[in-house]
Recover the amino acids of this structure.
């Protein structure tokens, strides 16, 4: 069943809707500039017990009904699966109430620090540093096709104990005799002596980060790291006002499997270091996970789009650090020119060497 949502923050000065101002701790009116501090309820960011969560009845996120937003400004009624958005008719900021229902409630949010002016500066620097990009790439710094979005991510904590089986390889050298062109010669040859190895390693994992949505360029989203998760604030809907917030579409169970895959790479490295020697072979690792905790948090990302040669390219900007990543076009003319210039340079060097060797210079 859809839920009616009426969370808006009217300005005490002019009646318009307040929006969270990046880089601040206030809600700001985009019209008269009036500010209202984002209050604190004294809560701290907390982790949820996975064991307790796993026993709770819950609907799959795909089965949940969309939020129904009723705008207090123009009275328009719209539906969306986003946690926050703008009214499609008047542009007013709308925020859903997610404290009830079957979806997992966000526990933390990293508020935006990068505002639109800083975004343009970051895009300008990124565009100017792209080699072999067409000149039209500069337009991305002027385009208004960008919006701020909070993207869902899961974090997982765990205490792990891993039992492994493998082999340790130690190098040693032998002298071999061989014949070359009728002459007997010797050489040192490196070999490896292998012996069985097994043991137990432990590791504490804190805030293993997993993307909670597949809707926003997952490959590029990974490259926006690092995120300073220690700077996260306890979730408050005020931080979302005026910004889009996507609802997670990666279930926490799927997120946990992704987190375990990330943990597995670290654990294998621990096993190899524990085995020691010059080389290692790891045949099997059996890991137990204890004190498993998790939380849903929202990370700030600017999403910019621009059109070039009939194709849409997407760029992501870290809303805290202004780090830029994304798709970009390549200029065939610039690449051809660079290749031709390189070939000419090589040909010139070859010619000069030839002339020098023949005594002509």
């Amino acid at each position: 069943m859809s839920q009616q949502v009426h969370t808006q923050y009217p300005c005490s000065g002019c009646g318009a809707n307040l929006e969270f101002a990046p880089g601040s701790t206030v809600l700001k009116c985009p019209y008269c500039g009036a500010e209202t501090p984002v209050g604190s309820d004294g809560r701290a960011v907390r982790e949820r017990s996975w064991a307790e969560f796993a026993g709770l009845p819950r609907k799959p996120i795909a089965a949940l009904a969309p939020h129904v937003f009723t705008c207090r400004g123009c009275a328009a009624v719209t539906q969306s699966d986003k946690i926050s958005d703008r009214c499609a008719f008047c542009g007013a900021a709308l925020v859903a109430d997610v404290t009830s229902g079957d979806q997992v409630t966000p526990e933390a949010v990293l508020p935006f620090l990068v505002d639109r002016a800083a975004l343009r500066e970051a895009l300008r620097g990124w565009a100017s540093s792209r080699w072999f990009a067409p000149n039209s790439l500069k337009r991305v710094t002027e385009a208004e096709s960008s919006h701020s979005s909070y993207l869902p991510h899961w974090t997982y904590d765990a205490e792990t104990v891993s039992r492994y089986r493998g082999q340790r390889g130690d190098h040693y050298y032998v002298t071999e005799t061989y014949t070359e062109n009728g002459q007997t010669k010797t050489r040192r040859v490196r070999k490896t002596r292998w012996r069985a190895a097994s043991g137990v390693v432990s590791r504490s994992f804190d805030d293993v980060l997993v993307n909670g949505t597949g809707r926003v360029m997952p490959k590029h989203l990974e490259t926006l790291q690092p995120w300073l998760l220690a700077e996260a604030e306890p979730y408050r809907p005020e931080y979302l006002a005026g910004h889009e917030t996507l609802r997670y579409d990666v279930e926490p169970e799927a997120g946990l499997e992704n987190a375990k895959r990330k943990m597995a790479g670290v654990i294998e490295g621990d096993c190899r270091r524990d085995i020691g020697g010059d080389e290692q072979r790891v045949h099997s690792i059996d890991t137990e996970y204890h004190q498993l905790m998790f939380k849903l948090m929202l990370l700030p990302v600017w999403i910019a789009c621009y059109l070039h040669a009939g194709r849409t390219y997407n760029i992501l900007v870290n809303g805290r650090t202004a780090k830029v990543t994304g798709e970009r076009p390549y200029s065939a003319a610039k690449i051809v020119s660079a290749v031709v210039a390189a070939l000419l340079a090589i040909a010139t060097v070859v010619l000069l060497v030839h002339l020098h060797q023949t005594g002509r210079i």
In short: The chain is about 20% helix and 40% strand. Helices lie at 50-54, 116-128, 218-222, 252-275, 332-357.
